[in-house]
């Protein structure tokens, strides 16, 4: 197992391209996007189905660059980003191809 960082972002779907561009510029090229997310926080309740949830993983040394790229977008357009520790299990043997 290898240490990794889990990046979870909830934001308006209109900002999705900017968020993904920020991740890619930080070297985080793989992600998952879940559309039509409903969320609620202390500040705002987003009940419309135009929010997205982005989850990505990166090496710990890329987190600073991710934050530098994502924070301005969230500050301008809103949203939330959480970064936490994770462990990655790298699988190099694909038995499906045997």
Automatic annotation (TrEMBL):
It holds the Pfam family P-II. SUPFAM superfamilies: GlnB-like. InterPro entries: N-reg_PII, N-reg_PII-like_a/b, N-reg_PII/ATP_PRibTrfase_C. One of its GO terms (molecular function) is enzyme regulator activity. One of its GO terms (biological process) is regulation of nitrogen utilization. This is Transcriptional regulator.
């Amino acid at each position: 197992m290898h240490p990794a960082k889990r990046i979870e972002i909830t934001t308006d779907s209109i900002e999705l391209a900017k968020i993904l561009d920020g991740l890619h510029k930080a070297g985080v090229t793989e992600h998952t996007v879940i559309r039509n997310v409903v969320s609620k926080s202390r500040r705002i309740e987003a009940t419309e189905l135009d929010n997205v949830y982005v989850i990505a993983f990166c090496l710990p040394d890329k987190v600073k660059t991710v934050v530098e790229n994502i924070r301005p977008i969230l500050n301008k357009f809103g949203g939330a980003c959480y970064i936490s520790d994770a462990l990655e299990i790298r699988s190099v043997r694909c038995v499906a191809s045997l």
